[in-house]
Amino acid sequence: MTDTRQPLPLRLGDLSVGFIHSLAAAIRQLHQDPLPLLAAYGLDPERLASPGARLSIPRYMRLGHAAMQLCAEPALGLHMGACSRLPHAGLAGITAAQAPTVREAARAMIRFEPLYATNYRGQSSLAEDADGAWLRFYSISPYNAYNRFVVDAVLSGWLAQLSSVAGAAVQAQRLEIEFEAPAYAAFYQPLSVQPVQFTSAANQLRLDQASLALRNPAHCPGTWQELLALCEQALTQQTRTRSLGERIMQLLGPLLSGGREPDLDEVAARLKLPVWTLRRRLAEEGTQFRAILNDTRRDLAMTYIRDTELAFGEIAYLLGFASAEAFQRAFKRWCGQTPGEFRRAARSAPPVAGL
Questions:
Q1: What is the pTM of this model?
Q2: Which CATH topology does 244-348 take?
């Protein structure tokens, strides 16, 4: 029987359309006109100028892949990152641009990332130590031509953005990437002092203390403090408007993988709530943990099938199923059709422009 419950408002994630400006700049550098492609994705000048406008992560990946085909350039993500500017990240980017040092700019970029980009797979992080810091982008494996582009744009973009703060080139001491070396591997080397390490445990770049200490010649202390306060207010407001169920959905994403199904105890511990309190508060919202887990898996499955080229076995892995067969049975129970039928129907429907 088809599950007729209304799905929770879950998406793989989204990001500010401001980032499309760097993509357009990279396409122009490669001697192509980006405007027809952007228009096909509903990204006309009016949309790009709309405050707070966002683009879904799957649509962004498809746009990036189409741009790579247009330019015949598989390393387009690296070109895009080099064109990245802090204002593309909105208020958070403007704030980072006013930081006193590269270190404070990196801290602002990571702390306020939810203001300009969200992904159910996780959030970027900054790990500081006595010798420097790692800027780490979360895993979005398994990798293909669609999502390698995302990693390339983020890592090279961080270095371009931090260089703009310092007014001088900032180069990583080390650059580590999860996926295997692509055919364009040589394009990464200018980003790092040491040879780039592929098939690594994380997507991350290393900055030494000297780079982190570089000062921003455009820093204005009063403006910096005012912008920090605005970002904190925006981040607090964003958190307050999310229900407990939505917070749990955000937690479940990184926990779903490799046939492992997170349980109520694990989620309660991450929320720093007793299990009985979590059950009670979910009941007050008219739901249960199992319903949220199933709705999360269902909505993610529908998005993966419709908007990516992932094989069903890969989707099963990402959603914590023990096997592709178990995933296919669950999907048919949720939607009344097999994943293959759903994908064929979605691909035969006319494209919808917009988010």
A1: 0.83
A2: Arc Repressor Mutant, subunit A (1.10.10)
